[in-house]
Specification:
335 residues; mainly beta; Immunoglobulin-like; 4 domains; five-stranded antiparallel β-sheet; four-stranded antiparallel β-sheet; 2 helices
């Protein structure tokens, strides 16, 4: 549709031709010259009106993804743009880091170079429909902290079944891209209940079948790592133990030791046995009473190993030495 400003221009041009009284020299008829001039003026006004009615594209917003980028990652600009005339829109991008324009960074996505925490990233976006351009849309972001990462987690003692009374030590390994100082947070739990926050955890007081879990988080002072979890540990049965060597008792020529044992799970069905002993030595499996009447030829040192076993089949041994002195020679007759 022609605007009223375009119609007025055409009329003015026609009136100007009339007042001058000029005519096309090639056409002797003044009426024909006047009509041709009016047509040309009308066409020019239509072209001028069409050009004036074009609207530049409009950038409604730009979003950076991610909003807080990290060093050596890809950042992308998501642009909300429209054109009232339905023209095809072309976008231009200009990326800068700390005020320095990045050569070749003229696409919607941009792989960041190695940056320091807090470096400034600027972007200017302009839209064009080939006839006119939008106002530049500018926004900025700053590089975020790189969270530390736990690369490995294990506990000591390793390569053994964990029993009641074992002291567990967590050994995490982590790295941080900015070489920040890393501190660890430990969360021990027993059967799902919080049980400790130190690096070491004593299983004393637990029982067979209890399940221990560990979760470790690394912190560089700015952000935390994802939690690293250890595979659940189920406490296995603890073997009974003989705590000490009992006092030697003499029953005539018989040696006697009364052994006692302890079991972490309170197993009352303990059984004593001899794993290594000189000939003739015996032990009562239930009471733990060891007796031995050495023969004269058994003088010297003898290694003895007394063991105790619980109802689960787990056992431990206690080892010591017994010394038998040689009998003095018999006195000669008449001495």
């Amino acid at each position: 549709m022609r605007s009223r400003w375009a119609d007025a221009a055409a009329i003015a041009l026609v009136l100007g031709c009339i007042s001058c009284g000029s005519a096309d020299e090639s056409d002797p008829d003044p009426k024909n010259s006047l009509a041709a001039g009016a047509a040309r003026a009308s066409g020019a006004a239509e072209e001028g009106g069409a050009a004036a009615s074009n609207s530049p594209p409009l950038i409604a917003g730009v979003v950076l993804n991610p909003p807080q980028p990290i060093s050596e990652s890809v950042i992308e600009a998501l642009v909300d743009v429209s054109d009232a005339d339905g023209n095809l829109v072309q976008l231009t991008y200009q990326w800068s880091i700390n005020g320095e324009v990045q050569t070749g960074a003229d696409k919607a996505s941009f792989r960041l170079p190695k940056l320091e925490r807090g470096d400034r990233i600027d972007l200017v976006v302009t839209a064009s429909d080939g006839k006119s351009a939008s106002a530049p849309f500018a926004l900025s972001a700053r590089t975020d902290n790189l969270s530390p990462q736990i690369t490995f987690l294990y506990i000591t003692p390793q390569n053994k079944k964990i029993r009641r009374g074992d002291v567990l030590t967590a050994v995490p390994e982590a790295n941080d891209a900015e070489n920040d100082h890393i501190e660890f947070t430990y969360r021990w739990a027993v059967n799902g209940d919080q049980a400790g926050e130190e690096r070491q955890f004593d299983t004393k007081g637990l029982k067979r079948g209890d399940v221990i879990t560990l979760e470790v988080v690394a912190n560089d002072g700015y952000s935390e790592s994802e939690a690293r979890k250890l595979e659940p540990i189920e406490l296995v049965n603890s073997a009974p133990t003989i705590t000490k060597l009992p006092q030697l008792e003499h029953q005539g020529s018989t040696l006697a030791y009364q052994f006692e044992a302890e079991d972490a799970e309170g197993d009352r069905n303990l059984r004593f046995f001899l794993a290594d002993a000189p000939d003739g030595m015996e032990i009562d499996a239930i009471s733990g009473l060891l007796t031995w009447r050495p023969d004269p030829e058994q003088s010297g040192k003898h290694t003895v190993k007394v063991g105790v076993r619980d109802s689960e089949g787990d056992a431990s041994q206690f080892e010591w030495e017994v010394t038998v002195n040689a009998a003095p020679p018999a006195a000669a007759a008449g001495e």
